[in-house]
Amino acid sequence: MAEKIGRRFDYEPGFFNGIFSLAIAGGMLIPALLGFVAYYLGMEYVLVIPAFGSLAVLALMLLIVLAAKLLSSDEDAPPPAEDAAEAPKVMATGVGKNS
Question: Which domain covers residue 38, as residue numbers?
Answer without folding.
Answer: 2-76
